[in-house]
Protein backbone atom coordinates (compact mmCIF):
# COMPACT_ATOMS: atom_id res chain seq x y z
CA UNK A 1 0.00 0.00 0.00
CA UNK A 2 3.09 2.18 -0.31
CA UNK A 3 2.84 3.26 3.31
CA UNK A 4 -0.59 4.85 2.92
CA UNK A 5 -2.79 4.99 6.02
CA UNK A 6 -6.52 5.73 6.21
CA UNK A 7 -8.71 6.70 9.14
CA UNK A 8 -11.82 4.62 9.84
CA UNK A 9 -13.58 7.85 10.82
CA UNK A 10 -12.81 9.14 7.32
CA UNK A 11 -14.26 5.92 5.87
CA UNK A 12 -17.54 6.16 7.80
CA UNK A 13 -17.91 9.88 7.16
CA UNK A 14 -17.17 9.71 3.44
CA UNK A 15 -19.57 6.81 2.87
CA UNK A 16 -22.31 7.88 5.26
CA UNK A 17 -24.82 7.61 2.39
CA UNK A 18 -24.47 3.81 2.43
CA UNK A 19 -23.30 3.11 6.01
CA UNK A 20 -26.12 1.99 8.29
CA UNK A 21 -24.16 1.75 11.54
CA UNK A 22 -20.71 1.10 12.98
CA UNK A 23 -19.64 -0.72 16.13
CA UNK A 24 -16.26 -0.74 17.85
CA UNK A 25 -13.38 1.66 18.27
CA UNK A 26 -12.12 3.82 15.44
CA UNK A 27 -8.56 3.44 14.23
CA UNK A 28 -6.65 3.10 10.96
CA UNK A 29 -6.33 0.67 8.05
CA UNK A 30 -3.82 0.43 5.22
CA UNK A 31 -5.35 -1.74 2.52
CA UNK A 32 -8.36 -3.71 1.36
CA UNK A 33 -8.05 -7.50 1.43
CA UNK A 34 -10.04 -10.69 1.06
CA UNK A 35 -10.86 -12.45 4.36
CA UNK A 36 -8.37 -15.25 3.69
CA UNK A 37 -5.40 -12.88 3.12
CA UNK A 38 -6.29 -10.17 5.66
CA UNK A 39 -3.95 -8.89 8.34
CA UNK A 40 -4.23 -6.51 11.31
CA UNK A 41 -4.25 -3.42 9.03
CA UNK A 42 -6.77 -4.73 6.48
CA UNK A 43 -10.28 -3.65 5.55
CA UNK A 44 -12.39 -6.63 4.43
CA UNK A 45 -15.84 -7.09 2.91
CA UNK A 46 -17.48 -10.00 4.71
CA UNK A 47 -20.40 -12.03 3.35
CA UNK A 48 -20.44 -14.85 5.94
CA UNK A 49 -19.65 -14.69 9.67
CA UNK A 50 -17.66 -17.93 9.56
CA UNK A 51 -15.12 -16.29 7.20
CA UNK A 52 -14.10 -13.67 9.81
CA UNK A 53 -10.28 -13.71 10.19
CA UNK A 54 -8.54 -13.57 13.57
CA UNK A 55 -7.01 -10.14 12.99
CA UNK A 56 -8.42 -7.32 10.88
CA UNK A 57 -8.85 -3.56 11.21
CA UNK A 58 -12.27 -3.00 9.57
CA UNK A 59 -15.13 -5.34 8.66
CA UNK A 60 -17.74 -4.10 6.19
CA UNK A 61 -20.73 -6.41 6.16
CA UNK A 62 -24.53 -6.74 6.28
CA UNK A 63 -26.61 -5.91 9.35
CA UNK A 64 -27.27 -9.60 9.98
CA UNK A 65 -23.61 -10.61 9.87
CA UNK A 66 -22.60 -7.50 11.85
CA UNK A 67 -24.71 -8.69 14.78
CA UNK A 68 -22.83 -11.99 14.71
CA UNK A 69 -19.26 -10.72 14.42
CA UNK A 70 -19.29 -7.47 16.42
CA UNK A 71 -19.16 -9.28 19.82
CA UNK A 72 -16.21 -11.49 18.80
CA UNK A 73 -13.82 -9.08 17.02
CA UNK A 74 -11.80 -6.03 18.01
CA UNK A 75 -12.22 -4.61 14.49
CA UNK A 76 -14.51 -1.73 13.66
CA UNK A 77 -17.63 -3.36 12.18
CA UNK A 78 -19.46 -1.30 9.57
CA UNK A 79 -22.88 -2.46 8.38
CA UNK A 80 -24.30 -1.64 4.95
CA UNK A 81 -27.31 -2.65 2.87
CA UNK A 82 -25.32 -4.01 -0.07
CA UNK A 83 -21.85 -5.42 0.62
CA UNK A 84 -20.97 -5.77 -3.07
CA UNK A 85 -21.84 -2.14 -3.76
CA UNK A 86 -19.84 -1.04 -0.71
CA UNK A 87 -16.87 -3.02 -2.02
CA UNK A 88 -17.12 -1.36 -5.43
CA UNK A 89 -17.21 2.15 -3.95
CA UNK A 90 -14.78 1.76 -1.05
CA UNK A 91 -12.17 -0.33 -2.85
CA UNK A 92 -12.06 2.17 -5.66
CA UNK A 93 -11.54 4.97 -3.15
CA UNK A 94 -8.83 3.32 -1.07
CA UNK A 95 -6.96 1.28 -3.68
CA UNK A 96 -3.70 3.19 -4.30
CA UNK A 97 -3.30 1.87 -7.84
CA UNK A 98 -6.45 3.71 -8.85
CA UNK A 99 -6.50 6.67 -6.50
CA UNK A 100 -2.90 7.65 -5.79
CA UNK A 101 -0.76 6.37 -8.68
CA UNK A 102 2.44 7.40 -6.92
CA UNK A 103 4.83 5.06 -8.71
CA UNK A 104 6.32 7.99 -10.64
CA UNK A 105 6.63 11.69 -10.03
CA UNK A 106 3.56 13.69 -11.09
CA UNK A 107 4.85 14.46 -14.61
CA UNK A 108 7.48 11.95 -15.75
CA UNK A 109 10.41 13.66 -17.50
CA UNK A 110 10.05 11.37 -20.54
CA UNK A 111 6.44 12.48 -21.17
CA UNK A 112 5.95 14.70 -24.25
CA UNK A 113 3.42 17.47 -23.63
CA UNK A 114 2.69 20.03 -26.34
CA UNK A 115 3.21 23.64 -25.26
CA UNK A 116 -0.43 24.47 -26.04
CA UNK A 117 -1.86 21.67 -23.89
CA UNK A 118 -3.56 22.59 -20.63
CA UNK A 119 -2.89 20.26 -17.70
CA UNK A 120 -4.84 21.05 -14.52
CA UNK A 121 -3.67 20.55 -10.96
CA UNK A 122 -3.45 17.04 -9.56
CA UNK A 123 -2.83 15.37 -12.93
CA UNK A 124 -0.29 12.59 -13.26
CA UNK A 125 1.39 11.75 -16.57
CA UNK A 126 3.52 8.61 -16.84
CA UNK A 127 6.64 7.62 -18.78
CA UNK A 128 6.63 8.20 -22.55
CA UNK A 129 3.06 9.45 -22.61
CA UNK A 130 2.23 11.94 -25.37
CA UNK A 131 -0.20 14.84 -24.93
CA UNK A 132 -0.96 16.61 -28.24
CA UNK A 133 -1.67 20.19 -29.19
CA UNK A 134 -4.59 22.03 -27.59
CA UNK A 135 -5.53 19.13 -25.31
CA UNK A 136 -7.22 19.88 -21.99
CA UNK A 137 -6.85 17.65 -18.94
CA UNK A 138 -9.07 18.58 -16.00
CA UNK A 139 -8.15 18.06 -12.34
CA UNK A 140 -6.72 14.73 -11.17
CA UNK A 141 -6.56 13.04 -14.56
CA UNK A 142 -4.11 10.13 -14.71
CA UNK A 143 -2.36 9.31 -18.00
CA UNK A 144 -0.27 6.15 -17.66
CA UNK A 145 2.88 5.06 -19.50
CA UNK A 146 2.95 5.06 -23.30
CA UNK A 147 -0.56 6.46 -23.73
CA UNK A 148 -1.03 8.78 -26.71
CA UNK A 149 -3.53 11.62 -26.56
CA UNK A 150 -3.86 13.25 -29.98
CA UNK A 151 -4.63 16.93 -30.56
CA UNK A 152 -7.77 18.72 -29.37
CA UNK A 153 -8.82 16.04 -26.87
CA UNK A 154 -10.73 16.98 -23.70
CA UNK A 155 -10.55 14.70 -20.65
CA UNK A 156 -12.73 15.34 -17.60
CA UNK A 157 -11.62 15.29 -13.98
CA UNK A 158 -10.71 12.08 -12.14
CA UNK A 159 -10.46 10.04 -15.34
CA UNK A 160 -7.78 7.35 -15.80
CA UNK A 161 -6.16 6.49 -19.14
CA UNK A 162 -4.14 3.28 -18.82
CA UNK A 163 -0.97 2.04 -20.49
CA UNK A 164 -0.84 1.97 -24.27
CA UNK A 165 -4.20 3.67 -24.86
CA UNK A 166 -4.60 5.82 -27.97
CA UNK A 167 -7.21 8.58 -27.87
CA UNK A 168 -7.83 10.03 -31.32
CA UNK A 169 -8.09 13.71 -32.13
CA UNK A 170 -11.11 15.76 -31.01
CA UNK A 171 -12.34 13.01 -28.65
CA UNK A 172 -14.40 14.22 -25.70
CA UNK A 173 -13.89 12.20 -22.51
CA UNK A 174 -16.14 12.87 -19.50
CA UNK A 175 -15.46 12.78 -15.78
CA UNK A 176 -14.45 9.60 -13.90
CA UNK A 177 -13.93 7.68 -17.13
CA UNK A 178 -11.66 4.63 -16.94
CA UNK A 179 -10.01 3.47 -20.17
CA UNK A 180 -8.11 0.20 -19.79
CA UNK A 181 -4.80 -0.78 -21.40
CA UNK A 182 -4.56 -0.98 -25.17
CA UNK A 183 -7.96 0.54 -25.95
CA UNK A 184 -8.28 2.80 -28.99
CA UNK A 185 -10.79 5.62 -28.73
CA UNK A 186 -11.48 7.63 -31.86
CA UNK A 187 -9.55 5.55 -34.37
CA UNK A 188 -10.36 5.53 -38.08
CA UNK A 189 -13.65 3.82 -38.89
CA UNK A 190 -13.99 1.00 -41.43
CA UNK A 191 -15.36 2.54 -44.61
CA UNK A 192 -14.29 1.81 -48.20
CA UNK A 193 -15.87 2.45 -51.63
CA UNK A 194 -15.03 0.38 -54.74
CA UNK A 195 -13.98 2.10 -57.96
CA UNK A 196 -14.58 0.83 -61.53
CA UNK A 197 -11.46 -1.30 -61.39
CA UNK A 198 -12.71 -3.06 -58.26
CA UNK A 199 -10.19 -1.66 -55.81
CA UNK A 200 -11.37 0.03 -52.63
CA UNK A 201 -10.88 3.66 -51.71
CA UNK A 202 -10.98 4.68 -48.02
CA UNK A 203 -13.64 7.12 -46.84
CA UNK A 204 -11.97 9.54 -44.40
CA UNK A 205 -13.57 9.59 -40.97
CA UNK A 206 -13.33 13.13 -39.69
CA UNK A 207 -15.84 12.96 -36.83
CA UNK A 208 -15.04 12.21 -33.21
CA UNK A 209 -15.94 10.10 -30.14
CA UNK A 210 -17.70 11.34 -27.02
CA UNK A 211 -17.56 9.27 -23.81
CA UNK A 212 -19.87 10.68 -21.14
CA UNK A 213 -19.24 10.57 -17.38
CA UNK A 214 -18.51 7.31 -15.53
CA UNK A 215 -17.87 5.22 -18.65
CA UNK A 216 -15.60 2.16 -18.37
CA UNK A 217 -13.77 0.90 -21.48
CA UNK A 218 -12.07 -2.50 -21.32
CA UNK A 219 -8.65 -3.49 -22.62
CA UNK A 220 -8.13 -3.69 -26.40
CA UNK A 221 -11.58 -2.32 -27.13
CA UNK A 222 -11.96 -0.07 -30.19
CA UNK A 223 -14.49 2.76 -30.49
CA UNK A 224 -14.29 4.36 -33.95
CA UNK A 225 -14.85 8.05 -34.56
CA UNK A 226 -17.77 9.17 -36.70
CA UNK A 227 -17.52 9.60 -40.44
CA UNK A 228 -18.68 13.21 -39.98
CA UNK A 229 -20.50 13.42 -36.64
CA UNK A 230 -20.09 11.68 -33.31
CA UNK A 231 -19.85 8.15 -31.97
CA UNK A 232 -21.46 8.58 -28.57
CA UNK A 233 -21.26 6.43 -25.43
CA UNK A 234 -23.75 7.46 -22.74
CA UNK A 235 -23.07 8.07 -19.06
CA UNK A 236 -22.44 5.00 -16.93
CA UNK A 237 -21.88 2.61 -19.85
CA UNK A 238 -19.52 -0.29 -19.02
CA UNK A 239 -17.69 -1.88 -21.94
CA UNK A 240 -15.76 -5.13 -21.55
CA UNK A 241 -12.46 -6.16 -23.18
CA UNK A 242 -12.28 -6.84 -26.93
CA UNK A 243 -15.44 -4.97 -27.91
CA UNK A 244 -15.78 -3.10 -31.20
CA UNK A 245 -18.09 -0.09 -31.53
CA UNK A 246 -18.12 1.24 -35.09
CA UNK A 247 -18.50 4.78 -36.44
CA UNK A 248 -21.57 6.87 -35.54
CA UNK A 249 -23.00 4.33 -33.10
CA UNK A 250 -25.08 5.71 -30.23
CA UNK A 251 -25.11 3.80 -26.91
CA UNK A 252 -27.55 4.83 -24.17
CA UNK A 253 -26.88 5.32 -20.47
CA UNK A 254 -25.92 2.46 -18.15
CA UNK A 255 -25.69 -0.15 -20.89
CA UNK A 256 -23.32 -3.15 -20.54
CA UNK A 257 -21.42 -4.44 -23.59
CA UNK A 258 -19.52 -7.63 -22.76
CA UNK A 259 -16.57 -9.41 -24.36
CA UNK A 260 -16.33 -9.58 -28.15
CA UNK A 261 -19.58 -7.76 -28.77
CA UNK A 262 -19.51 -6.10 -32.18
CA UNK A 263 -21.70 -3.13 -33.07
CA UNK A 264 -21.71 -2.06 -36.71
CA UNK A 265 -21.93 1.53 -37.90
CA UNK A 266 -24.79 3.92 -37.17
CA UNK A 267 -26.65 1.49 -34.89
CA UNK A 268 -28.67 2.81 -31.96
CA UNK A 269 -28.50 0.99 -28.62
CA UNK A 270 -30.80 2.14 -25.85
CA UNK A 271 -30.42 2.59 -22.11
CA UNK A 272 -29.87 -0.32 -19.68
CA UNK A 273 -29.17 -2.79 -22.49
CA UNK A 274 -27.04 -5.87 -21.72
CA UNK A 275 -25.19 -7.88 -24.37
CA UNK A 276 -23.64 -11.23 -23.54
CA UNK A 277 -20.36 -12.36 -25.13
CA UNK A 278 -19.99 -12.38 -28.92
CA UNK A 279 -23.25 -10.58 -29.66
CA UNK A 280 -23.33 -9.01 -33.12
CA UNK A 281 -25.44 -6.02 -34.18
CA UNK A 282 -25.67 -5.11 -37.88
CA UNK A 283 -25.35 -1.54 -39.11
CA UNK A 284 -28.23 0.93 -38.83
CA UNK A 285 -30.14 -1.32 -36.42
CA UNK A 286 -31.98 -0.26 -33.25
CA UNK A 287 -31.93 -2.05 -29.88
CA UNK A 288 -34.45 -0.46 -27.48
CA UNK A 289 -34.08 0.30 -23.77
CA UNK A 290 -33.99 -2.60 -21.29
CA UNK A 291 -33.07 -5.27 -23.85
CA UNK A 292 -30.91 -8.29 -22.94
CA UNK A 293 -29.15 -10.09 -25.81
CA UNK A 294 -28.10 -13.68 -25.03
CA UNK A 295 -26.47 -16.76 -26.60
CA UNK A 296 -24.45 -14.93 -29.27
CA UNK A 297 -27.52 -13.07 -30.43
CA UNK A 298 -27.30 -11.68 -33.94
CA UNK A 299 -29.36 -8.53 -34.44
CA UNK A 300 -30.17 -8.47 -38.17
CA UNK A 301 -33.34 -6.39 -37.85
CA UNK A 302 -34.52 -3.72 -35.42
CA UNK A 303 -35.58 -5.13 -32.04
CA UNK A 304 -39.22 -4.02 -31.61
CA UNK A 305 -39.53 -3.86 -27.81
CA UNK A 306 -37.32 -4.38 -24.77
CA UNK A 307 -36.95 -7.89 -23.34
CA UNK A 308 -34.73 -10.96 -23.64
CA UNK A 309 -33.58 -12.07 -27.09
CA UNK A 310 -31.25 -14.82 -28.27
CA UNK A 311 -29.95 -16.61 -31.37
CA UNK A 312 -29.42 -15.50 -34.96
CA UNK A 313 -31.51 -13.86 -36.17
CA UNK A 314 -32.35 -12.60 -32.70
CA UNK A 315 -35.75 -13.78 -31.44
CA UNK A 316 -37.55 -13.57 -28.10
CA UNK A 317 -35.88 -15.87 -25.60
CA UNK A 318 -38.94 -18.11 -25.10
CA UNK A 319 -39.19 -18.71 -28.84
CA UNK A 320 -35.47 -19.40 -29.01
CA UNK A 321 -35.70 -21.99 -26.21
CA UNK A 322 -38.68 -23.65 -27.91
CA UNK A 323 -36.73 -23.81 -31.16
CA UNK A 324 -33.77 -25.47 -29.46
CA UNK A 325 -36.04 -27.93 -27.64
CA UNK A 326 -37.83 -28.82 -30.89
CA UNK A 327 -34.51 -29.31 -32.67
CA UNK A 328 -33.40 -31.77 -29.96
CA UNK A 329 -36.67 -33.68 -30.27
CA UNK A 330 -36.30 -33.85 -34.06
CA UNK A 331 -32.74 -35.16 -33.65
CA UNK A 332 -33.95 -37.93 -31.33
CA UNK A 333 -36.76 -38.88 -33.73
CA UNK A 334 -34.22 -39.01 -36.56
CA UNK A 335 -32.09 -41.44 -34.55
CA UNK A 336 -35.12 -43.66 -33.90
CA UNK A 337 -36.09 -43.61 -37.58
CA UNK A 338 -32.58 -44.63 -38.59
CA UNK A 339 -32.70 -47.58 -36.18
CA UNK A 340 -36.11 -48.63 -37.50
CA UNK A 341 -34.87 -48.31 -41.09
CA UNK A 342 -31.83 -50.39 -40.26
CA UNK A 343 -34.09 -53.10 -38.80
CA UNK A 344 -36.33 -53.07 -41.89
CA UNK A 345 -33.34 -53.25 -44.21
CA UNK A 346 -31.73 -56.12 -42.30
CA UNK A 347 -31.95 -59.54 -44.02
CA UNK A 348 -34.41 -62.02 -42.52
TrEMBL record:
Protein origin, superkingdom: Bacteria
GO annotation, biological process: lipid A biosynthetic process
Molecular function terms, GO-annotated: N-acyltransferase activity
SUPFAM superfamilies in alphabetical order: Trimeric LpxA-like enzymes
UniProt entry keywords in alphabetical sequence: Acyltransferase, Lipid A biosynthesis, Lipid biosynthesis, Lipid metabolism, Repeat, Transferase
Xref: Pfam families: GMPPB_C
A single cellular component GO annotation: membrane
Domain Mannose-1-phosphate guanyltransferase C-terminal: 108-187
Repeat is among the record's keywords: yes
Protein name per Swiss-Prot or TrEMBL: UDP-3-O-acylglucosamine N-acyltransferase 3
Highest classification ranks of the organism: Bacteria, Pseudomonadati, Pseudomonadota, Gammaproteobacteria, Arenicellales
